[in-house]
Amino acid sequence: MNLAGTELAPRQLYDILRLRVDVFVVEQNCPYPELDGRDLLATTRHFWLGEVDSYLRVLTEPDGTYRIGRVVTAKHARGQGLAAQLMTAALNFVGDAYSVLDAQTYAQGFYAKFGYVAEGEEFEEDGIPHITMWRRVARPR
């Protein structure tokens, strides 16, 4: 499924937020402000598979760069390649535009498979090591 923030039904938003909280807040023991005001924007795209077994969102930053984030898969659905399917769908949406993400450091190799390159120093976000990664596709002249 792929919907803009303004197209989400209440149940879809609930299921998305529940998965994100179950994994990022409860499983990873990381209390952080999950509700950032960007989920319901028309420029936010939500991608998920199944009954929200795996999910990610694509934000549009003020400079036009796309930001992929909240990549998450429910514990019962891991190991099935769902996140890779979602990344492929998100990159089909993004096309040749620049995109960025802040990867949990252990997942760098996963994002590298999709053309993302680490830039800058590792940093901690909510107590978890992260690295900023960019995907810059050569644009035709």
What is the succession of H and E elements? EHEEEHEHEE
Kindly state the number of beta strands: 7
- Structure class: alpha+beta
Q: Order of strands across the widest beta sheet? A: 1-2-3-4-5-7-6
Principal-axis shape: globular
Main beta-sheet annotation: 7 strands, mixed
Rounded mean pLDDT is 93
| Low-confidence region ranges | none
Rg result: 15 Å
Portion in beta strands: 25-35%
Whole-Å distance between the termini? 34 Å
- Number of DSSP helical runs: 3
Helix content: 25-40%
Summarize the structure.
It contains three helices and seven strands; from the N terminus they run βαβββαβαββ.
Task: Please give a structural write-up.
- Helix 2 (82-94) links the parallel strand 4 and strand 5.
- Helix content is 26%, strand content 33%.
- It has a seven-stranded mixed β-sheet, with helices on both faces.
- The chain has helices at residues 10-27, 82-94, 108-112; strands spanning 2-4, 45-49, 54-60, 66-73, 99-104, 117-125, 128-135.
- With 141 residues, it is α+β, with helices and mostly antiparallel strands.
List the keywords.
7-stranded mixed beta sheet; 141 residues; single chain; alpha+beta
Write the layout of secondary structure elements.
Blueprint: E1 2-4, H1 10-27, E2 45-49, E3 54-60, E4 66-73, H2 82-94, E5 99-104, H3 108-112, E6 117-125, E7 128-135
Parallel strand pairs: 4-5
Antiparallel strand pairs: 1-2, 2-3, 3-4, 5-7, 6-7
